[in-house]
Amino acid sequence: MRVMFLNSLEKKDNVGVSVAAQVWIGEEDGSWRIGWNEIMEGEEQEYIWYEGVSWSEMLHVYRHHLVMKMSEGFRPIVEGIWDEREELRGRGMAAQKLVCYSEMNGNEPLYLELCSWRRKKASSERKAPYLIASNRLLRMISVFRPQTVEELLQLPGVGENKAKEYGPELLELTLVSERSTSFPLSWVDLELDEEIFRSWLYKQKEAKFRVEMEKFTTRRNVLECINEGLGVEQISLRAGIERREAVELLEELEKDGYNTDNLIETELMEMPEGERTAVWKAYEEIGDTFLKPVLQRVYGQEMAEGVNLEKLYEQLRLIRIRYRRQRESIRSAG
């Protein structure tokens, strides 16, 4: 096996280096391996993170596992394993530090009170709660406890409109008790330990990469199902996703150059040829951006009772995949 990449890391305690480690990527006959070798008290333990032929999958696994280790406190001896320095500067870093500080110094009673306020406000305004205020914003409000609109505006996520609309009610909750900190919040930069902040940043990355890994795994499962000739229902069951998600994934795969035509033909077998033609003609006449106008053009403004709308929309999506493929082929040929 040829080692294509290797870097050393260490995790320090208050005395010195407590754990040394190496991360490596090797290749042999087109197969990739990722390994993590950890050395503690003179004993080395090897962990294999990945073995396979997919370069893309290998990179996803590498990023996810590495950022988990860095969130635990491991740091590269030679910089460049990650864009650490870039992560720790630039616009928005001050905002990240406020979020980090508020999560590590929580004021749970006030936070829960703010969540209760948001829930009632969202219900009365018929809005999703996150449109009123995010969890992170409520955390910051509960910790820093702004007492004027001007102070409230210093928190990331609060603009003039939000301050005007919700400021008075939020300040009613924050003015009840005394606070031990002050505005402006420039003191947070000095108060927050740099290593703790870096580990927190990597935890945020880990959560992001975990979601990406889950998406990648689902995508791979769907591709395997297509190669096996399975239908949408079987795909959704094996991948653990809804039928609509499965069809949306087919649209993405088609954009990336994968051929899904056999699956589409199987799924559309029960759809009368006349309906297929009418849908295609509707796409040509009114466009393929929105499905509802096409649905109404083909089936009328009022749907007959008992019509399975979800099924109809699914069929429209499948036909749209074919329509867009043909349109792209014509554009490329021209």
Automatic annotation (TrEMBL):
Q: By its UniProt entry, which SUPFAM superfamilies does this protein fall under?
A: HRDC-like
Protein's UniProt keywords contain Transferase: no
Q: Name one GO molecular function term.
A: nucleotide binding
Q: Which domain of life is it from?
A: Bacteria
Question: One Pfam family this chain carries?
Answer: HRDC
Entry keyword set: ATP-binding, Helicase, Hydrolase, Nucleotide-binding
Q: Where is the HRDC domain?
A: 104-184
Leader sequence range is none
Q: What is this protein called?
A: Helicase
Which lineage ranks, top first, belong to the organism behind this chain? Bacteria, Bacillati, Bacillota, Bacilli, Bacillales
